Amino acid sequence: MSQTKSINYYKELIDLKDIEGIEAQFQRLLDVSIESIHDLENWIEDEKNIRFEIEEALTGHLVDFYRNTEDPHIKSTYLQDQQVIQPLLMTYEAKLNDKCCESPYFNELDENHYGLMKRFRESKVKLFRNENIPLLVKEQELCTKYSEIMGGLTVEWDGEEKPFPFIESQLDNLDRNVREKAYHLIRAAYRQIKPDTDALMDELVQLRHQIAINAGFENYRDYMFVAKNREYSIEDCYDFHENVEKHIIPAWNRLADVFKSKLGVETYRPWDNTAKLLKNPPYAETSVLLDGVAEMLGKTDPYFSDRLQYMREHGLLDLGDRKGKSPGGFCVPLPVSGDTFVFANFSPSFFSLIALIHEMGHAVNGYLQASEQGPIEEFQWRAEIAELYSHGMELLLLDKFNLFYPEEEEFKSAQREELRRAFTMLFGPLSGDLFQHWMYTNPQHTAQERDEKFYEISKRYGLNPVDTTGFEEVIGMSWIGTLHFIQYPFYDIEYSMSMLGALQLLEKYQQNPQQAVEFYKKGASADYNQSIAAIYKETGVDFDFSESTVKRMGEFLEKVILDINS
Fold it and tell me: Whole-angstrom Cα distance, residue 32 to residue 39?
């Protein structure tokens, strides 16, 4: 899948260059007279349809840019969206939220249907400040700059210039010398772009701090908890950090001894802390990856594979690595089309296999939602829910890795590595969350202090069993490679919370596969206006990150891994 241009995978029902036309549509909404609860409900529906048209066009332009950050026309369109359309949307969104919330019929809206939307709008009204609009636009410009920096990053490998994801994939190589070579090259690449990314992050921290101050908050962390409408507290997050450190990290250290034994090494070094027990990448060509994942999905549920086949046929996938392509992977909804698009920039590796399965979990969730409830609106989207179905899909397919790894020992190694990934999802994103708590509650920190804090937290969690001697500095700067820190602040801990739910789903799957899949589909198509806890309950699991659940799921996961090893 090497296309870099739009092939009509999204609909442009509105011309985003027609500023006057867009303003006229918003002004008509503002001029509508709302004389009854029925009028208000119709007004909300009309507003939603306009927003969906704009959102689909914006999303299509964003995906086009991520697919080719070096195309000047694509970049120009994307920057026009960020610099002109987004400020316009922020201004009118504030006016529309005021109109809705100030309506005498606002409190008469059915709580079961509109409750989440009401809370979302009220928090938007609380946070909005005119003076933040240029700051938010600047924030997006900095995020775009990061995509360009990372999209243009290449590394020389055996005399050839290779895209950065290729070098990252070599961390999975069975040859320890190759892994170490790749590790050093990656860190050298980070060092090359460090001055630019340090300056970028310094500016982002100050910018975001000012946004929070303008909105009446002490810091950006507190601001984001309101912006995200979180259904748990800051203190709950700190408790979760501690529970994982207390119960998951000791188990992680025990498992490290198992992996050291499998590797035949006495010292666990940074380049050993990857999926390196698999002899070869699971595929060489993207078509083979898609065929194999389609079969894995089909053996789990026919609907799952049907969605992948549909996406292949309609140009809704862009996988594989190339120069100029932005890093990472994601799945985005197209609310007018009712489709989803999956983007990924990975070379052949075990992780790229998992990444596609993960994103297909999001896609299936999106399609089930669209067919049962209609497209997911902005206020309905919560990462704690979305990531349950991406992690859940990974674990539901755990028993089908033999389609890529037919040899028994390789099959076990693949399962072991996926469960190892589940472990890392319990503490990796969580440590990233703790890092962001520190960054934004200490906004005057220096670049050196930031690196030192990142190393300290990394050593407490994922690198706890690893001998990092001599690599403290390079580990400290490796936050550079985590795009969430730049582009999606405070979107991290949700991965860890949702993994606890996904492990509960795996527990059910081991007892009754068909029932677990039905629970998955029921939850993935549930009414998103419910609380997070209610949607988890429909999926047959609990939204619970208390100490007892962390301890129980950690013990379950460790046992499953050890059972595979035996």
Answer: 9
